[in-house]
Amino acid sequence: MILLQTTRAIRFALQNFRRNLWLSIVTIIIIAVAVFSVSLVAALNVLGHRALATVEQRVDVTLELVPSASEADIATFVERLQNQPLVASVAYLSKTDALEAFKRNHANDANIQNLLAELTDNPLPASVTLKAKRIADYDSILAFVDLDENAKFVADSKRDFKDSQLVIEKLTTLTDRVRDIGFLVSSVFAFLSLIVVFNTIRIAIYTHREEIGIMRLVGASNAFIRSPFIIESVLYSVIGAGLAITLLVLLWQGATPTLHKFFFKDTTVNLGTVLQQNLWTIVGWQFLGALLLSTFSSTIATRRYLKV
Amino acid sequence: MITFERVSKFYPHGVNALKDVSVSIAAGEFVSIVGQSGTGKTTLAKLIIAEEHPSEGRVIIGDWDITHIPTADVPLLRRQIGVVFQDFKLLPQKTLFENVAFALEVSGALPSKIQQIVPQVLKIVGLDQKMHRFPREVSGGEQQRTVIARALVHRPKILLADEPTGNLDAINANEIIELLLKINSFGTTVVLVTHNREIVNSLRKRVITLDRGHLVSDQATGKYRL
Question: Which fold has domain B1-80+158-226?
Answer without folding.
Answer: Rossmann fold (3.40.50)
